Amino acid sequence: MQTVILCGGKGTRSYPFTEYFPKVMMPIGGTPVIVHLMKIYAAQGFRDFVLAAGHRQEILVDYFNGRFEDWSVRIVDTGENADTGERVARCRPYLSSRFFATYGDGLGDVDLHQLLDTHVRTGGLATVTTVPLRSQYGTVDFDGDGRVQRFREKPVIRDCWINAGFFVIENRAFDSWTGRNLETDVLPHFASTGDLFTHQHDGFWKSMDTSKDQMELEQVLSMGAPPWLPAPLLHNRTATA
User: Fold this and answer.
1) What DSSP assignment string belongs to 72-108?
2) pLDDT tens digits, residue range 51-75?
3) pTM, whole model, 2 decimals?
4) How many CA within 13 A on the CB side of residue 113?
5) Taking Cα atoms as reference points, which of 51, 46, 48, 67 lies closest to residue 6?
6) Using CA atoms, how far apart are residues 211 and 199, in angstroms rounded to an integer?
7) Span 11-31, pLDDT tens digits
8) Backbone angles phi, psi at 151, to 5 degrees
């Protein structure tokens, strides 16, 4: 199975870094976020990557030239201004009957074999990994009289789940692929036809949308082993260190 990684957008929220580099090259601990992401897949046996490139793709070509010889890395020019759904579709010639896809800036300790099991069991055209929403703000709990009971700092909202990427998609889904944008066109279309299912992930997940997110991930990494590697892999890493 191949893993398509979306890494062609202009990343305007990460300006000025993205004026000169693809957003996925933003470093965490001196290593580009895309490499941290690829290691999640490679450590679980999936080492065939298709990078859906666009903006500043020459940086990706140069970076991956001669690196990671145990991996297969194909960089596909999906267009400077293509949208997310178009980028995935333009990788079709390089994909097998079933493939992974994900965003280039989201890290999580997703068990990819469990994800595959969910996808096969449900029998849909696509499966999207979802995670509970973490509030950007602290919340205030109070009773019916308005008496404040407690403050909660950026709590996880358990009854609200969001798109975390880490997709599994059947190649035949391209036969009914609709629209330009993955989130507003393609996935809602498959949901409307009953062909989209979810794999719920309750572990670590964080996207790196801004420089603030980058600093937070740097802080997380400085505390020890990367929490975006699934627990069994962290155990093996510790045992062999």
Assistant:
1) EEEEEE--SS--HHHHHHTTGGG--SEEEEEETTEEE
2) 999 999 999 999 999 999 999 999 9
3) 0.89
4) 7
5) 51
6) 29
7) 666 667 667 789 999 999 999
8) -110, 140
